Task: structure prediction
Amino acid sequence: MRDQLVNRWESGQLDRTAIQPGRERRPEAGLENAVVVRDLVKRYGERVAVDGLSFTIRHGEIFALLGPNGAGKTTTIEILEGYRTADAGEVRVLGLDPQRDADELRRRIGVMLQSGGIYPTVTPIEFLDLLRHFYQEAEDPWKLIRLVGLEEVARVRYRQLSGGQQRRLALAAALVGKPELLFLDEPTTGMDPQARRLTWALISSLRERGTTVLLTTHFMEEAERLADRVAIIDHGRLVALASPLELTQAETDEVQFAGPAGLDLAALRALPSALDAWEVQPGRYVIHTKRPAELLAELTAWARDAGVLLPEIRVGHESLEEVFLRLTGHELRE
Amino acid sequence: MEALLAQARMEMLLTLRRAEGVLITLVVPAVLLVFFASLGIAPPEYAQPVDFLLPGMLALAVMSTGLVSLGIRTAYERSYGVLKRLGSTPLGRGRLLAAKVLSVVAVVAAEIALLLAIAAFGYGWRPGGSLLWALLALVLGTAAFSSIGLLLAGTLRAETTLAAANGLYLLLLLLGGIVWPVERLPGPLALVGLLLPSNALAEALRLSLGPQPVAPLAQLLALLLWCAGALAVASRTFRWE
Result:
């Protein structure tokens, strides 16, 4: 099952464009959206964690909230899960109010917290078997164990599992109740690359069951690979909302180059065809442009006049990471 | 109902997996009973030492389960995010707490059976007095100490709860009428001891199990007040994460 999923993922069979709305569970009449967030505000004392956020998630969609630590991702997801109350604005989850309709909502959602949530002295199979009793219709615990590849540690206590294994158990636990809507808060943080690929394949495969997924991440690649749409948030505000393809194939091209560290960014930004200029790492620069050919000519002319050697110049589309940098003015990773 | 029972089973399993919890809840009261009863250490007004000691050890067993074991376990579950996680399943917070109550009641029942067996077979204790009042005292005492345990668990950090629960345990054991009557403690300590919930429970049990049983109304009222007070504070301060 596991290898099959990975193979299918890697051979491109899990095509992003082949989105099918829920086959098993049809959205109720008139409820086109699984999640609606409107003008959401949440403050912790003086600090504004979420500042007027609005977005909607369609049924069957995989939706990523992307942003650095402290951007308000977890606060937003925990308001939707019913753990926190909003200070202002409106949220609807599967047409329900997470506070008022908590009992009904809990039966229909699956939750993976950012960390913890599982008894340290309990084994994966014991924990999944416990959760099974909470739902009217539940997945078989052993099936879930196989799905997330924990067969070999199914009878090992949680605290003895590796970080990645603990996260996979948390993911399996979120799936026990066959949820219509799955909340995954940084699902692959702490996983090694292999476990991460397995998890990506698993999340992608949920799409075929019609499960709606809201995930938060600060891994660009994760959002780019998994999500139908990405909401980039920073300081609790929505910065951009589109498919990964739309975000990265906007009109903007970029020129990346290497050179001495500490070049004059103001001079680079002043080049006629440059939209901006950043030193992303010491000695590595990115300039965005609508006219890449012109910018190349201007850049090499500037380098000649400034007596600077630029050993490596590359023109290309932005990656999602660079989109983030351009939109927010700072790097994603803390 | 199925969810509640599954969770109660899990609570029992977790109780048994905490070796130090089993030690403090099951072994310590039994060992103290054997130790003091064998040495015959008890106030002279009791016909047999076990008549004084057994009610104290029953109170200790209730205290170690409700205050120490439940309190510490719940505090760590809170810090591990388990309370938060299970609260978002259909089990819900109400049934999560109910399952804890069931597990505490089951453990207390096992302890009572163990202590009664030791007292009866080892030291010639015979059931007497008013079992109904004794049962009421045990129920109220379990409720009071569980409330205090949950108050600590939901308010303090896990490490602080661990220290506070164990500290209170020792304090109540020595000053709270468990192994020595509070009226025989020196002046101010006697007053402190008189007000402690462990003394109320132990005294209520001594009065109801004695040869001329007396309705332990004052002690039951004290337990009720402790329980209500702890619940009132806990309902304001308890945090699930």
Q: What stands out?
A: Residues 2-237 of chain B form one domain. Residues 81 and 237 of chain B are 17 Å apart (CA to CA). The longest helix of chain B spans residues 92-123. The interface with chain A takes residues 2-3, 5-7, 10, 13-14, 17-18, 77, 80-82, 84-85, 88-92, 241 of chain B (CB under 8 Å).
